[in-house]
Amino acid sequence: MVDSANLESAPPVRARERIRRTARELFYKEGIRAVGVDTIVSKAGVTKPTLYRCFGSKDDLAAAYAKDYDDEFWERFEEAGIGFENDPRRHLRNYLTGLGERATNAGYRGCGLSNAAVEYPEKDNPARLVAESGKQALRNRLEGMARQMEARDPGLLADGLLLLIEGAFISGQIFHEAGPAGSVADVADMLIAASVNLGR
Known about the structure:
Arc Repressor Mutant, subunit A; Tetracycline Repressor, domain 2; 0% strand
């Protein structure tokens, strides 16, 4: 029998998910460091003991947020390539067109992983580790796509594409509607064209 004092000893999955959803919204909009645990539990409708039973610490919750964000990124990235599995250039064009549209919307806050890496310079921070892993995976994927496009130097093209993507994440937060992030797909096309035609 469970008495009322221990009702939260095994928090239901829905409480964990409420915490994650609330953290996702607050961390992205306001920044991880700016949002306190009190705010999260208040908006999620749970208690501090529930949060700490679910995640152990705010750092663990921040890492879970970063992982959720990374999963969302890859879902969006892969969706852009549906039907273009053998056409990495079109896949990238589709993804970058969507990125350019999102990054020029008012209120755009960039990439949650990039923001987490900036907020947490400590190399052993859990959220930072998730962010670094996600960014390395993206660079590797871009290099693979560059090889598929037969770029002269796939690593160099991957670096250039990653710099463009990261630039869109940041410039979108600064310029919004009239900003250069809206041109990211066109600039990427130019870079790809130069990279695959160089020396031919």
